[in-house]
Amino acid sequence: MFRVINQNEMVRSGELSTRAGQVLTPTFMPDGTRGAVKSLTPEMVFSTGVQVVLANTYHLHLQPGEEVIARLGGIHKFANRKGPMLTDSGGFQVFSLAKIRKITEEGVRFKDPKTGDYIFMSPEKSIQIQMKLGADMIVAFDDVTALDEKGRDRTLEAFERTHRWLERSLAEYQRLTKEMDEEDKPIIFGVVQGGLNKDLRKKSLEIVQTLPVGGIAIGGLSVGETREEMHGMLDFLADKYDDSARPRFLLGVGDPIDVRHGIERGIDMFDCVLPTRNARHGLVWTTDDERVHLTNEKFADDASVIDENCDCYACQQGFSRGFLRHQFKVGEPLAGTLASIHNIRYLERLCESYR
Ligand SMILES: [Zn+2]
Questions:
Q1: Is 271 noted as a catalytic residue in this protein?
Q2: 12 Cα: distance to centroid of ligand 1 (angstroms)
Q3: Residue 311 known to be catalytic
Q4: Catalytic pick from 143, 255, 258, 271?
Q5: What is the pLDDT of residues 35-55, one digit of tens each?
Q6: 294 falls in which pLDDT band (50, 70, 90)?
Q7: From ligand 1's centre to the CA of 273, what distance in Å?
Q8: Set 88, 258, 268, 307: catalytic member
Q9: What is the rounded CA–CA span in Å between residue 173 and residue 200?
Q10: Distance from C-alpha of 165 to C-alpha of 182, rounded to nearest angstrom
Q11: DSSP structure string for 128-194
């Protein structure tokens, strides 16, 4: 259940009730791709103000497999995560990571990049895996296209298939949750596709909004288009959402500039690997979304913390830019850990400033 607490122009602050607890929005959800937010303990994640951790269905299905995770007590127990978790559908990874794949109406057959085994993923299979993992929020399986020149040709086909697959995802979800009490059911998000075609996007949003989904996800952005194109589509969609009490989730977007743009166009939830991936390469955000490369030689003698306006563990404990630069230079993983804490906290503070 979702409740808008306050709305100012397009910006909404809200409260989402999941079976694992309340989530205040807008919110940024870091990606715990393989069950863990890379190089961070659950306590460190908690210290940043994160409310929801995302896990990737594709990666967990390949390794160690949902059966193993279910036997070990489900994704929360497995990952030692106490609060809400969300799993994606696996669609984005199937389409972006699997080099050899064959798409049919039934689903996608692809080769496991590690073992070479053929694996089949369909809307039903994706929902089954996500239910077995035990996430509190799940996403319908969609057909994702890149927005580079080649991918754009497939926009209409992917748009049409996404809705057929959404109906199948929902039917499977309803079948698997039939016996559950309403408050025990995970929330299912339907995905809006349509590339950069405004007519298709509008239609896609209308279709998703007429279905009994618990949340609206905007997919297929941040996949090769320019920032102006992405922002233009968020502007276009901003006044087309219906007034049903459902959260809006922008998939795979995590640059502060884009998160701000999204929040100001009515988006409630975001996820991305960007803050932690950037951090591991020494790239951090500081006040006013400035990008700072900690590996730069000019920081060798710098006694100041990453950002003196920041209340994250790394800045509050006084780890200097000089220390962090040195740790990055010698390949010490602590540097990536501290920078990850800082970057995630940066996005959480950004979201908090809008609530
Ligand atoms: Zn910090």
A1: yes
A2: 26
A3: no
A4: 271
A5: 899 999 999 999 999 999 999
A6: very high
A7: 18
A8: 88
A9: 25
A10: 24
A11: HHHHHHT-SEEE--------SHHHHTTHHHHHHHHHHHHHHHHHHHHHHHTTS-GGGSPEEEEEE--
